[in-house]
Design goal:
Elements lengths: L1 H9 L4 H16 L9 H13 L7 H7 L7 H10 L10
């Protein structure tokens, strides 16, 4: 996945697993009806924030705490909350 490769290059502390999870989650967010779907820049910002918090796994709780780094509008955050975070952060294999 190209986004995961870019994340790993820009935020090496994120690691392969977390970079893959972030890329998949951002891809799922792009499929939602958002005012501003997240791009590569937001994915990198999210990875940086998660790395600062020492997160090695993208969970619903971690996503809830850091959602503002990937979604720029409060309306988009509310859209995602209403839809539920579980499908966004669903495990990738």
């Amino acid at each position: 996945m190209r986004v995961a490769e870019i994340i790993r290059r820009r935020v090496p502390t994120a690691g392969d697993h977390l970079a893959g999870q972030i890329a998949a989650a951002v891809n799922r967010l792009r499929d939602m009806d958002l005012t501003k779907p997240p791009g590569i820049s937001e994915a990198i910002s999210w990875a940086s924030a998660l790395s600062v918090f020492g997160a090695g796994e993208l969970t619903g709780q971690v996503a809830e705490q850091t959602m503002s780094t990937v979604l720029k509008y409060p309306e988009d955050e509310e859209t995602v909350r209403q839809a539920g975070l579980a499908p966004v952060v669903a495990a990738i294999d």
